[in-house]
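User: I'll paste a sequence; please echo it back and then give the predicted structure.

Assistant: Echoing your sequence first, then the prediction.
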Amino acid sequence: MKKLLTTVAAAAVCTLGALAPAAAEGEKYVLVSHAPDSDSWWNTIKNGLALAGEQMDVEVEYRNPPTGDLADMARIIEQAAASAPNGIITTLADYDVLSGPIQAAIDSGVDVIIMNSGSPDQARELGALMYVGQPEYDAGYAAGLRAKGDGIGSFLCVNHYISNPASTERCQGFADGLGVELGNQMIDSGQDPSEIKNKVQAYLSANPETDAILTLGPTSADPTLLALEEDGLSGEIYFGTFDLGEDIVKGIKSGAIKWGIDQQPFLQAYLPVVVMTNYHRFGVLPGNNINSGPGFVTADGLEMVEKFAGEYR
C-alpha cells in the first residue's frame, strides 16, 4: 500500500507539472514611455512593469527619453522593435511624431499595446492589440461635474505638458463639465518647478476671482501647492488634481487639495504584460480596451493610497 501511494503521488506531481504553463524561452516585453527622468510619477509604472515581469516569468525592460524629447522616443521605439521583442508597450504622447515608428513595429510583426496616452481610436487605427489607460476627456468632464456641484464657476488649469493632446483634453473636459468656456483659463506652465510656481502666482494675482485650480499631475501640482502656501491661499481655494504622488497625498490629507483623480498607473504597466504574455502563450485576448481610471481619491479613502503612494499608487 505504501508503495502504491508513493507511485500515485509521484504521478500526480508529474501531471500537475505538465499542466502548469512554462515560460517560452526568451520572452521579452519592452515598455517605452515619453516621460523624462525627472518625472517621479512614472516610478509606479516601473514598479508595475517589474512586478508583472516577475509574476509572469518574462523579461521586461523600461525605456524612455531622458529629457522627454519625443524625437528621441521615436528612435527608442525603432530600436526596441529592431531587438525583436515579443511585444512593445508604449505611450502615444504625440500621434504625428510617434505613429510612424509604432506602425513600423507592428508591420514588422511585433505586437503593440498602447497605454497611458493616445486613445483607443488611435490604437485601433495603428493596429495595436488594445489600449490600456484613462479616457482623459471623460475624466476631466467627471471632475468638472463634481466641481460644479461644489459651486465652482471659474478655474485655472495648469497644463505642464501642453504638447500632449491628452493634457488639453483633461482641461477641456473640466471646462465642459462646469459648463464654461476653456479660453485663457488654461496656461502652458512648462515643466520647471520654479516657472510653474511663478506662473500660477501671476495668474491668480491677475485673476483674483478664480474659484479653483486644476493641475494635471505631480509635476504641476507640487509647485502649485508651494505657490498657494506662499500666497496664503492653501486650503482657501478649491484645488483638484489629476494623478497621485507623495506631496499630493499630503495635500489631500491636510485639506489643501480636495481630490485627486487616480488613473491607476500601476495597472497601465502591469496589465499589458499580463495580457500579452497570455496572448502569446494561449491565444487569448480581452474583447475590449481597458479603462484604468478615473477614480476620485479624497481624504476619506487615503489609508491604502498613503501606504503605497509613489510605489503602487
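The first helix runs from residue 2 to 19. The chain is about 50% helix and 15% strand.
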